[in-house]
Amino acid sequence: MADHRNRSLQPTVLLRSEAGSLVSGSDRAGRIQNFENSAEGTLEPVRGPSRYVSDTGISYDRPHGIYHALLEDGNRDVLLTQMGDTVYEHQGWNDSNPWKKLLGPSGSGARIISKIPDHGGPQFPCQFETTSKGIIIVPQGFSRAYLYDGTVIIPLGYDRVPASPTGYGAEIGDAGKPTEGYSVSGSTGANIVLVDDFGFGKVGTIETGVDSAATTYVGKVLPGEYQGAVQWVDYFGNVSPISARSNSIRMHHHTTGALPVEKLLKQLYWTPIDNGPEGTIGKNLLRTKDTLNSGTNSLFIIPGNVGMGITGLFATIPDNIVRKYPDNTPDSSLVVEATDCIPVPLFKLCRLAFGRLWIGNIRGESGMIIPSLPGRYGTFGSNTEMFPDPNGGEITGLWATQGGLLAFTQTSTFLITPSDDGQSFKTSTLHPSVGCVAPASLASMPDGSAIWLGEDAFYKYNEEGISVISGEIQSTVDRINSGRELQACAAVNLKNQEYRCWVPLDGNTKNKMCLVYDGSGWKRRTGTNATSVCVTKDHRRLMLSAGVVPGQLLNNTVSRQADGVLQYRPAQDYNGVWVLDHENIAFKPASRTYTIETGWLTWVDSINRRSAKTIYLSLRETVDSSATISVYRDWRKTPSKLAYTDSTKATLLNPDDVPPLWGTTSWGVTEYWVRRRPYWKRVDIEVPSCEVYKIIISSSKPLEFIGISIDEEPKIGGFGTRIP
Prior knowledge:
Elements: E1 8-9, E2 29-33, E3 35-37, E4 43-45, E5 50-51, E6 63-71, E7 76-83, E8 86-90, E9 99-104, E10 112-113, E11 127-130, E12 135-138, E13 146-148, E14 153-155, E15 167-168, E16 170-172, E17 178-183, E18 192-193, E19 206-210, E20 217-221, E21 224-226, E22 228-234, E23 249-251, E24 254-255, E25 268-270, E26 280-288, E27 299-301, E28 325-327, E29 341-342, E30 347-353, E31 356-362, E32 365-371, E33 380-381, E34 397-401, E35 404-408, E36 413-418, E37 425-431, E38 443-444, E39 450-453, E40 458-462, E41 465-468, H1 474-477, E42 489-493, E43 498-503, E44 513-517, E45 522-525, E46 529-535, E47 543-553, E48 572-579, E49 587-589, E50 594-598, E51 610-620, E52 626-633, E53 645-651, E54 678-690, E55 693-699, E56 704-714
Parallel strand pairs: 9-10, 17-18
Antiparallel strand pairs: 1-56, 2-50, 3-4, 5-48, 6-7, 7-8, 8-9, 11-12, 12-13, 13-14, 15-25, 16-17, 19-20, 20-24, 21-23, 22-26, 25-28, 26-27, 29-33, 30-31, 31-32, 34-35, 35-36, 36-37, 38-39, 39-40, 40-41, 42-43, 43-44, 44-45, 46-47, 47-48, 47-49, 50-55, 51-54, 51-56, 52-53, 52-55
């Protein structure tokens, strides 16, 4: 029998993160699966998920995206999700149909008819972004983007150009009188007339002087020329591209004669003025000043009310009905130059930064990004496009940080900041060989640092620059399916400040594995195949997932047997919206395995053999369960003639002080709630004369882990004690 005095109890190790390398420190685990950091410093078991809407009669299509935002100064709660070819909004649990359709195909009953692709191939998740005007919705597959403020949903900006208007003016004949066109006096022969009650005209350039006798002042209208154009204005203040210019309206030379000089000025008339698509609530009528005398050929916005000036109505015509407009605006009132912008292109990515919406991965120009005008998130100025990558690499991510806007290709990272003059923007290269492969993997930690998935690692960016944070789990990162990595998605759990990224490992086509980074190390979790994740912006701070979860739904026709046992449907995979880290009786998730695997212990001193005798587990009261304790030796993790494996089924509760347990303890006068206490559990093992060994603790029921300590016995007379 071994002498107990020769045994050595190793210090307790608090395993909190993984290290996938062959050799690592004793405080690093080989694997920590389905545990999360607790506020009290332990490893708590992962729970759930549960369905966000528990009605078992709801059928969900293929998930593509999910997003939560607070609008109207936090008074409007909006939850959006894309399932199949339809974008839904959650409208409460008391309604018979908790999801209303915002965007969908013809015949779907959606508010807006939109063709949104629905396929299971590799693609980015549906993109969302919150602005001061509402939520930008960007379905993938180069679909039209939309803007939704909680009440109104319309396409983002304009993707087409209005038709040009036709202008009419007073055409002066040889006799110096209006013969056709549009005149103030309504002289005989005018096709379009304006009664004298409308007052004198104000359009034209006047020149005054003294007659040859130097006794009276005389005036004349100089020859002039005008052109017009139209620009639509939508509900959110976005403007369309400017239409082509109208015909030229010419003013002929004309002297006062017997008329006062004011009566020589003219008025103009525009028709037809093209009506805009749905969402248009106004039209800007644009006009040049007298191009022959003003020295400019630019288009200016005709104010809606000359008396009120440019601060009057938001548009020249504050509706989308009027198609005719009498123009009596003098050149002096044309002060606001029209914004020259482009049709909104189809794009895959967007991000808000510097008060503008930046769009990237544009159809036909995948390496281009364009900023919107400030506060007008669907209006993109002409000649403002940027190509961060000189080689034109495809934009694969956009993210706003304290230092500026990060723009990514698969192999490079760039930083966009305001130019020195503050009038435009400039691009600088942060890293020429580190990029981003999954735009939805981008997330910000509470300290402001940004984290994302690159081609070969996870990276972090802060004021110190870009650094690799996944070196310890490189063997796992190398297993990410490169053909599907672009669909990875991530969010930061604010409760315990964990970055969680769901990725497709090995040959999986779905994001079945979640890699978790807590700022110092990594863990992993399973049980949810997430397509998209978000965290609610309200007080709940729930992490929601649109994805697939295996499990059993509560039977909605027969809920209980006579003995009170709940009845569930057969196990299968369910699409839907899920609340992570929460459980209820409406859904029973598939059984998951809670695993803590140590690294290869004692490798630093592996030249000396030893025997592992006893494991001491520091646990916290959770459930009445057991765990399988497996021990592997000498660098081999599979049973063979050269590897010794011992598996022991150990109960985890302390029989000396069994606590009241959730789900088994009946409430009564003898039972009361107590704070769950930590305790030690001893498990005897036998691993004789080994160089190194590994311990794996696994259980199908949740347990709360604190630490582990091992009782060893050195091998007397081993190689380490020989004298050369």
